[in-house]
Design goal:
Elements (H helix, E strand, L loop, with lengths): L1 E2 L2 E6 L2 E6 L8 E7 L14 E7 L6 E2 L17 E5 L2 E2 L1 E5 L3 E5 L10 E5 L2
Antiparallel strand pairs: 1-2, 2-3, 4-5, 5-10, 6-9, 7-8, 7-11, 9-10
Length: 120
């Protein structure tokens, strides 16, 4: 007998209830470069476009659309995939399982860490 995400298994006079939650695999980043059409360099400046490559970077594939914009402001989230650079949200242009394209926020400088989140 299966109910949503719980499964009840009768074993003799005892009943065991198994509760499980399926989670996406952790994202793995293999490289980050400036946008290919701008040289694909390993370093980049604020305001530039970068490509993040790896595995499990998004749960689906999407290019931003007009409906993703808030007025003239580009999206910082496509289907729950977000990227922050130096603690600032990056505009997300494209997502797929193996690539995410974002614009480095204009307010960052120097060497910065980035954080990519997938899911809720």
């Amino acid at each position: 007998m299966t109910k949503s995400n719980e499964e009840v298994c009768p074993l003799g006079p005892y009943w065991f209830v198994l509760h499980f939650t399926l989670q996406s695999a952790m994202p793995t980043v293999t490289s980050v470069i400036s946008a290919t059409q701008f040289g694909a360099f390993p370093t980049f400046a604020r305001g530039s476009w970068i490509e993040i490559y790896g595995n499990n970077l998004a749960e689906s594939t999407q290019v931003w659309a007009q409906s993703d914009f808030n007025g003239l402001t580009a999206p910082t989230n496509l289907q729950n995939t977000t990227v922050t650079v130096g603690g600032q949200s990056a505009f997300v242009d494209y997502i797929s399982a193996t690539q995410v394209n974002v614009q480095v926020p204009g307010g960052v400088s120097g060497t910065q860490k980035f954080f990519l989140a997938v899911g809720n």
